[in-house]
Structures are given as C-alpha cells and as structure tokens.
Model the fold of this input.
Amino acid sequence: MMDSDIILPQQVLGEILDHAAQSWPMECCGLLISDAGLPPVATSDNGPGRVISRIVVAQNVASDPAMTFEIDPGLLLRTHRAVRDAGEDIIGCYHSHPDGRILPSRTDLARAEQPGFYWLIVGSQANDTRDWALYQRVPLHHDPAIARSFRRCEYKLV
Done:
C-alpha cells in the first residue's frame, strides 16, 4: 500500500459533492482536514491511512471562478491557526472542474507547491457531481531536481 492511502467518510464526500453541485458552473473549493492526534487507521493488510475528518468550505476568490479557484487567503490563515490549536492538519484541498473532468489541469499542477498535499477533484456538470478522484502531489519531499506531478491515490470510503 502506498503512503497516499486515505480514509474518506461518505458524509464528508457528500458535503464536497454538494458544494460542487451548488457552485456549478463556477469552481468550488475548500480544505481537507485530518486529526493530527489520531494514529493512522489500517485501510488494508498492507498499512495505515489518514482520515479526512472534515472539510472547510472556502469562497472561491479567483478573478475567473468559472475557470480556476483560489481559496480566500484570510480563511486559509484562520484555518491554519485553528487546526494547529485543535491538533489537526490541513492535508489537502478540494475543488471542482465545471467541465466534468477529474484529471488535474496544468494550472492545478503549477499551483501544487506543497509536497505530499492531497487534491480531491470533482467533475461537476449541470446535473451530475458524482465523478471525483483523489490525487497526491509528488515527490513527497521538496527536491528541485525532480519534476512535480500528481499521483492518483487509493482511498477507502467509510
């Protein structure tokens, strides 16, 4: 099992899919939160995974929210402080692609600065937000000699 295994409660996924549906035709965005104090949970016989315990819904403040997303910087700063104080971690972000595609875009890759950060992408359309995928930014450590990319992650819905 890879380091990228995630446990995703169906309730949390439902909140993300609802946010994407309500935001269409604009991109939605938010943060994926995990409890730093909890030990990793076994997702299979091969190893542990991180639990996405909740999300923080963010306003998309991008200049063109139909084409890209930008999480409100004030909310991002407040969330960093709040999760630190609560013993949690921001382990990733989520956003939607209103054209229905779930592959990371070139813009996503260009903005994926943090090694190991998770990206959940929802392919939203006018009447459908069921298609989604989870990726992790690799390499998992900062190494300017290695080109950054995304790796599709394994997950377990609970």
The longest strand covers residues 128-138. Residues 10-23 form the longest helix (14 residues).
